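input
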Amino acid sequence: MKSAWNCFGIILGAVAIACGFNLFLIPHHLLSGGVSGISMLIGYFSDFSVSLMYFALNLPILILGWFKLGKRFIGYSMLSVIMTTWLITVIPVKLIVTDLLLACVFGGVLVGIGVGISFRVGGSSGGFDIVGSIITKYRDFPVGNVLVGMNAIVVLAVGYLSDDWNIALASMASIYISGKVLDLIHISHVKVTVFIVTSKTEQLLVQLLEIPRGVTKIKTEGAFSHEEKDMLMTVTTRYDLAELRRIIKNTDPHAFVNIVETVGVMGSFRKR
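output
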């Protein structure tokens, strides 16, 4: 059931991406980021279709990701690339809005939502997303910021080739919006420290260590009641926080929990 739900999420993300392309970006000759932007660039200045170039350029990156990021992640990414390629072909390119600013904003939002959903369920939309994931696997950066930085050269290329810097700057705005929307949805890079004061230490530890995250146990004493309890401290991600809340609520609903956003983590921390 979980795999089926994840596949549904990938397909939903592909629909959002394809709609962002064909209904907002492509009618105005705007670019998306990464491989899709390069595909659009080639499509605008040649006889090749955007969908064909999108699939062809993604293929070698998917092969690279297969060895660097694992079969499950790339399997979902392949599904996303195939579905997006097909949807770009079947959804007609239609001018929904005539205003360039509205097109870049709503196109960027749709693409960001689609890519974010794909990341959230354990895949990606291919292209620079996979390259960005390889970078963030070894360096603790937000994925959206990494993608925005890598897309700058694509925007410069459209400005140079088309000699229309309005299109180039609008494309940059769209890519920036996509990156920010992506980071709102894909939140695994945001760390939080959770302090749990509980009287059911062992029951909680059994479940917390299955997430899996390291847990530190600290002896505490209430200043007013002088009652001795244990305080469990763990660092996790915003993505895993919902599961952590569920465990605490089901095991010890009377536990005192303090959640603090963490600026940085040094030492051993499981990123994936």
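quick obs: The two ends are 22 Å apart (CA to CA).
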